[in-house]
Amino acid sequence: MAHEHGHTPTNFNRAFAIGITLNLAFVLVEVAYGIMGNSLALVADAGHNFSDVMTLLLAWGAMAMANRGATARHTFGFKKATIVASLFSAMLLYVAMGVILWEAVARFRVPAPTSGMTVIVVAAIGVVINTATALLFISGRKHDLNIKGAFLHMAADAVVSAGVVAAGFAIAATGWQWLDPLVSIAIAIIVIIAGWGLLKDSFHLTMAGVPTHIDSEEVLALLGRLPGVCSVHDLHIWAGSTTENMLTAHLVMPEGGNDDFLHETIKRLRHDFQIHHVTLQIEQNGICSIKNQQGGKCWPEQTNTKEG
Questions:
Q1: Which residues of the chain have pLDDT under 50?
Q2: Could you tell me if residue 308 is inside a domain?
């Protein structure tokens, strides 16, 4: 039996610190001017931006926990915290959008005058801040669900803030106050759609699902084609964190295997599938069916071997 692992995530501490500071300051400004200008669109956008601040805080805290070492009670360490944080962030986002939708519908029933110019100026500042924050996380969006969530939230905010600017011009030009709650509803719908992928992926990983970028059938096929392997069973693939993937499997090899075989297999799994922590158990006295001797494979529930 052998195992190997190794993957060091990029440090985004500075990006988190800057992003949180900028967005928290902007939330306070947006709420103040939203109330003074009687703009639900600004208050709605502030609510969304505050949920982003919470998202950044959760992600940052989870990354700090992930850097803690393993203990006797937590032998895998605390890397799973990054997945849990992503799930909580997505849930928080949906709760915030539900509140905004509720308030927008109420505003449709009882319209209130809105200061279009206030909306324009404040939302324009939001475009700049959200774009700058998104750029802080752009380099890590493809490799870490936490960072991807931060990037998508901030990029979506930049687009939404641009929409609020457009609504402000429209209100100033036409006097149509119903545009304010309409934009609020549009903001909520856009965010709900954009956040669905984060919610789905986070829940999937929380339930120890196979990471979406890994094809388990291809992994099984690769292991089944290895020289000397006549059967594969008890294959499990899951995410240990938002940056590390794990695999365990039993390989039935009548002739046995050596360290070179194990190290080469681990190297291929890391290179081809970004699986960083691999544990393989070789069984010499497992029973191989004719099907498996001809290159077939079996899933864990179809085990046809005996433990050594």
A1: 3-9, 289-308
A2: no
